[in-house]
TrEMBL record:
UniProt GO molecular function: hydrolase activity
Hydrolase among keywords: yes
Provenance organism: Intrasporangium calvum
Name of the protein in question: Adenosine deaminase
Family: Belongs to the metallo-dependent hydrolases superfamily. Adenosine and AMP deaminases family.
Family matches, as NCBIfam families: aden_deam, PRK09358.1-5
Keywords: Hydrolase, Metal-binding, Zinc
Cofactor needs: Zn(2+)
Domain of life, source organism: Bacteria
EC number(s) stated in the UniProt entry for this protein: 3.5.4.4
SUPFAM superfamilies membership: Metallo-dependent hydrolases
Classification via Gene3D superfamilies: Metal-dependent hydrolases (3.20.20.140)
Length: 353
């Protein structure tokens, strides 16, 4: 069999970088907009996916945020929130994901459901319900925003800590998202301290819009288990080595990087350099609603970068090992990744001779 015969859609994997709003199907956001009488921006009504401006400059990021905010404004209550979790899980499962850690900032939905606690509990409850099917387990990452005051991050960390656990429908991690150029990483250290004491995985964004120095600051001040993106650590070999030495995994999202202009071309995404440095990688889709590609497309992108099937399997193992998936899920997924690599798997068996 040649490498390309193995289907990435059936390679077992975990998905560790997916935002709640950004996970939406485009049809879903259009449905919700119609339901609530909201006019979506043309970019979400016309040809999909939308063409995004280069987000590494402030104007491009602002335009991306405006689209994101428009999508988020269509989510107005429990029913909508449950639909998003359910569809994200089903879409993930259809692409071979055994475990999803969906990232949500409950602040955005709190006004519609009576506060951040009910907002988080709705997400957790639906995560539990969809996990009961047995196809996929869904854990939740509570993400604070860099655009808000660090005290709000502490409030969210305490909320996350109260729901901390290691199974489906529990909070498994604490993140920090949004424009890296806002706020000082060090100011969020107390919030990450609360999350650390609760045993949560610490998964802040860094090294996407800003370079290697932002990765170093994230390592020093937040003590992360994983970093969202972190791709720009390759700009300083010492930082890349520090990531490897700290055993920190990077959630690399090739489709997102290209859509936002962090890299001009798919072949510029430094995935192989990160892997060669001995850094564990978990591929993620980030915001499929705006970037137009879901989880398995990230593995296809890795294949286009020259990854062999053995390396794709290593990426899938990385995603499982960097996750907070329960032991049973991990064991089964790792075994099935090995099976995917064996010569007879990955496509239907041929007729008997
Ligand atoms: Zn992200």
């Amino acid at each position: 069999m040649t490498g390309s015969d193995r289907l990435v859609e059936v390679l077992p994997k975990a998905h560790l970088h997916l935002h709640f709003t950004g996970s939406m199907r485009v049809d879903t956001v259009r449905d919700l907009a119609a339901k609530h009488g909201i006019r979506l921006p043309d970019a979400l009504l016309g040809d999909w996916p939308p063409r995004l401006a280069k987000a590494t400059d402030e104007r491009g990021w602002f335009r991306f945020q405006r689209l994101y905010d428009a999508a988020r404004a269509c989510v107005r209550g429990e029913e909508d929130m449950r639909r998003i979790v359910r569809e994200a899980a089903l879409d993930d499962a259809a692409e071979g994901s055994r475990w999803l850690e969906i990232q949500v900032d409950p602040t955005s939905y709190a006004p519609f459901v009576g506060g951040i606690t009910p907002a988080l509990e709705i997400v957790l409850d639906e995560a539990r319900a969809v996990s009961a099917s047995g196809e996929i387990g869904v854990g939740v990452v509570v993400a604070a925003s860099r655009m808000r005051h660090p005290l709000e991050a502490r409030t969210l960390a305490r909320l996350a800590a109260r729901h901390a656990g290691s199974g489906p429908g529990e909070v498994v991690g604490f993140g920090l998202s949004n424009d890296e150029r806002r706020g000082l990483v060090a100011d969020f250290a107390p919030a990450f301290g609360i999350a650390r004491r609760a045993g949560l995985a610490l998964v802040p964004h860094g090294g996407e819009l800003l370079g290697a120095q932002s990765v170093m600051e994230t390592l020093e001040h937040l003590g992360p288990d994983r970093i969202g993106h972190g791709v720009r650590s390759v700009e300083d070999p010492q930082v890349l080595d520090a990531v490897a030495a700290a055993g920190v995994a990077l959630e690399v999202c090739p489709g997102s990087n290209v859509a936002l202009g962090v890299y001009a071309d798919p072949e510029d995404v430094p995935l192989r350099r990160i892997m060669e440095a001995g850094v564990r990688v978990a591929l993620g889709a980030d915001d499929p609603l705006l970037f137009g590609s879901r989880l398995s497309s990230q593995y296809t992108a890795a294949r286009s970068l020259g990854c062999s099937d053995a390396e794709l399997a290593e990426l899938a193992r990385g995603s499982i090992l960097a996750s907070r998936a329960p032991d049973g899920v991990r064991r089964a997924a790792l075994e099935d990744i090995d099976a995917w690599l064996t010569p007879s798997s990955g496509k239907p068996a041929g007729p008997p001779r």
